[in-house]
Design goal:
alpha/beta, Spore Coat Polysaccharide Biosynthesis Protein SpsA, Chain A, four-stranded mixed β-sheet, 11 helices, about 35% helix
Length: about 300
């Protein structure tokens, strides 16, 4: 079982190095997309035979399709690698594993036919997946300003609808949403690329939706033969303490919880499942990560 860790990074070089060190093994490699707005010099000390920073970089903006563009760069490079990876795991540079590297690798070896990605039919208020994410036209930060002005004027005078009918663009596809972070098989990643090459109108629609990184891949796989293989994702985030739409930083108070449980509590929509990673950690989390490192090799209760 060869694992390609696909990592989105824009800051926290120290935490990224800790993440890579924790997951490094003979079976793992790391493909990193660094936001083009970030200074590569800050990450220059992160090197290794199993580490690849993508030469192609895009500026990544919050809630924007640029997340998808960065992820696609990572998928394509990892798929083309001659080492032929079996499992592709999307992480943030602020993540850290909750279980030992050996445990994680055996986990994927024992579940080769599972796709770990949250899948919630839209709309779903409980999981904050309102249909407005699709019906609202999202103006991208890279859109020419004159295009934005013209579109707003046409909408105001009634030549363009205030809301889009997503069914016109998606047809028979059921819209799904979920967390950005996933762990997919090689076959699922290949399927995603093929779909996006062939279904251009659907892809273009998602370019102007809110947070497409939390709905495009879910919609593709949720309407495919992969759906019966899908189980919930593997990354924990503390949304109870979220600030401005971001999950709370992991603190020492989280450690007893990580030590006492190995699974997410059952969820009516997502089901249950194991918890292998957590986000988010900062560059200043060195002491916290050191404590987590001591306990992550111990069996969970």
């Amino acid at each position: 079982m060869k694992i390609a860790y696909l990592i989105l990074a824009h800051d926290t070089p120290k935490q990224l190095q800790r993440l890579i060190t924790a997951l490094s093994s003979n079976s793992s490699s790391f493909f990193i997309h660094l936001d083009r707005k970030s200074n590569f010099a800050d990450f220059s000390l992160i090197k290794g035979d199993n580490i690849c920073f993508t030469q192609e970089r895009v500026p990544v903006f919050r809630s924007d399709y640029s997340h998808i563009e960065a992820i696609l760069i990572l998928i394509k490079i990892a798929l083309s690698d001659l080492r032929h990876f079996d499992r592709f795991v999307l992480l943030s540079a602020t993540d850290y594993p909750l279980r030992s590297t050996l445990y994680i690798e055996r986990f994927f070896e024992n579940k080769p036919d599972k796709e770990f990605i949250d899948l919630v039919a839209m709309p779903n208020k409980e999981h904050w997946n309102p249909i407005s994410r699709l019906t609202t036209y999202w103006y991208r930060p890279t859109d020419p300003w004159i295009t934005v002005i013209i579109r707003k004027v046409l909408k105001r005078v009634g030549f363009l609808p205030r809301e889009r009918d997503y069914r016109h663009y998606l047809g028979e596809l059921v819209p799904y949403a979920g967390s950005e972070w996933w762990a997919l098989s090689r076959e699922a990643c290949e399927y995603i690329l093929t779909f996006m090459q062939e279904e251009i109108p659907v892809v273009n629609f998602f370019k102007h939706t809110i947070c497409p990184q939390e709905s495009l891949f879910q919609t593709i796989l949720g309407n495919s033969f992969f759906k019966p293989r899908i189980v919930r994702g593997l990354t924990y985030a503390d949304w109870m303490g979220s600030v401005k739409g971001h999950p709370a930083y992991i603190k020492e108070t989280h450690l007893p919880f990580f030590q006492s449980t190995a699974s997410f509590p059952p969820d009516a929509v997502l089901g249950d499942g194991e918890m292998l990673f957590a986000r988010k950690f900062s560059d200043d989390s060195e002491d916290l990560v050191a404590k987590l490192e001591k306990q992550r090799n111990e069996p969970a209760g």
